[in-house]
Amino acid sequence: MVMALQGSVKVLVPCGSLGAGVRESEIAYGLAKGADVIATDAGSTDSGAAYLALGKSKNNRGAVKRDLGILLRAHAQTGVPVIIGTAGQAGGDLNVDWTRDIVLEVAQELGIAPRIALLYSEQDKTALKALNQQGKVRPLPPLGPLEDSVIDACEHIVGLMGVEPFVAALQAGADIIIGGRSTDTAVLASYPIWRGAPWGASWHAGKIAECGAQCCLNPADGAGVLLTIDEHGFEVEPLSTTNRCTPHSVSKHMLYENSDPHHLHEPGGILDVTEAVYVQSGEHAVRVEGARWLAQPYTMKLEGAAAGDYQTLMLVGIQDPDVLADVNAFHDRLLAALYERTRKSIPAQELGEFHISLRMYGWNAVTGDVPVNVPPPREIGVLFVATARTQKLANAIAHACNPYFFHYPMVPNKELPSYGFAFSPADIPRGRIFEFKLNHVVAVDDPLSLVRTVWLDRDGKSAAA
Q1: pLDDT number for residue 5
Q2: What is the pTM for the complete model shown?
Q3: CATH number for the domain including 415?
Q4: Domain span at residue 401?
Q5: Digit-coded pLDDT (tens) for 165-220
Q6: Is 149 part of any domain?
Q7: Is residue 199 domain-resident?
């Protein structure tokens, strides 16, 4: 149930992502300014599919516990609820449980007993296949229709939640909400929407503040921001008193991870900021008005991570002037030689499908584009990557290529060079590779139908809702 707005709602956004470094002085400032809730995102797909596939966080446990300790102490002192979204980096069930255990540990150390709601958004494969057969799942470009085999290949699949599961948990009395995969914006917009703030202003405020101080003039001076949402719009200000927001620093964040500066697609609607106005409010804050929420049929984006083949790496540094004079030719000749060496060294029936790549750092490793009309680099780093169906086979390919990789001459019949080994042993088994397999949305009639809510008592045991 959404309330009728009384005055304004203040959302303390402590950082861009839980574990990045909450600042105690900023939390104290936000609480002194009357913060009603603390809300923060805790994850992303930025670092790839492995964190969903493996159910692990890229953040150090100690860093996440430190941040949670500060936030839970703030809750203990003031009673303000704490909302966390995309827990444990990827928001899968294992990621949520990892965060849950840290929260329970901190709560026990502080001697508090918060009412904790866990929002699980990982999807059952059988149920997802049934929805797909009913025509409820559609692809986003550039993918095509979803096949059952793709669903089966995924280690874990999550659906991105909107505000509704968070609102339901708040309505049921949650002190702490640990959410699975959700849109960054929804985590911050949920509390003001529950309190009756306009949807347009709430979603817009959430989008601007999703990365904490990144919407400030100096993102390095501080970690978080304070949002004040009312019936006409919102105000955003840094939690650091030495930082400031400007109309430009705030408005430009609509382009962060969003190709359209005027529209943002979210579960259940589109945020339209075409008519938004950004005005300086005092020295540090910016006032924003004019956003609209355009309700749409409710869909949840699906993310699925699958495990693939195995890889082995080798790395050298090269300052050989013959190589540096024509890096493109060296890459092509060496790669061809490595493929030939592999096929001669390992029987075809054992080798099967495999792949070798050379990534020329300092030349074109990031883009893959072939530079033209540029001076030779001072040095390059060459990363060898062998990909095969087993780790043993990837290792064997690296071992077969080792002599060529470290001694291949740019000029035939010239004395063999020795490139700079980065490590010894030279080969590094990397393990499995992971990739996202889904870029689809699923249509639902009820925003809560694909979300499971579990309530916990202080001992971490399930409690009645």
Answers
A1: 86
A2: 0.93
A3: 3.30.70
A4: 305-436
A5: 999 999 999 999 999 999 999 999 999 999 999 999 999 999 999 999 999 999 99
A6: no
A7: yes
Question: Are residue 359 and residue 277 in the same domain, yes or no?
Answer: no
pLDDT digit string (tens) for 406-419? Answer: 999 999 888 889 99
Is residue 245 assigned to a domain? yes
Distance between first and last Cα of the chain: 16
Query: SS3 letters for the chain?
Result: CCCCCCCCEEEEECCCCCCCCCCHHHHHHHHHCCCCEEEEEEECCCCCCHHHHHCCCCCCHHHHHHHHHHHHHHHHHHCCCEEEEEEEECCCHHHHHHHHHHHHHHHHHHCCCCCEEEEECECCHHHHHHHHHCCCEEECCCCCCCCHHHHHHEEEEEECECCHHHHHHHHCCCCEEEECCECHHHHHHHHHHHCCCCHHHHHHHHHHHCCHHHHCCCCCCCCCEEEEECCCEEEEEECCCCCCCCHHHHHHHHHCCCCCCCEEEECCEEEECCCCEEEEECCCEEEEECCEEEECCCEEEEEEEEEEEEEEEEEEEECCHHHHCCHHHHHHHHHHHHHHHHHHHCCHHHHCCCEEEEEEECCCCCCCCCCCCCCCCCCEEEEEEEEECCHHHHHHHHHHHHHHHHHCCCCCCCCCCCCEECCCCCCEEEEEEEEECCCEEEECCCCCCCCEEEEECCCCCEECC
Pair (265, 365) in one structural domain: no
Number of domains in the chain: 2
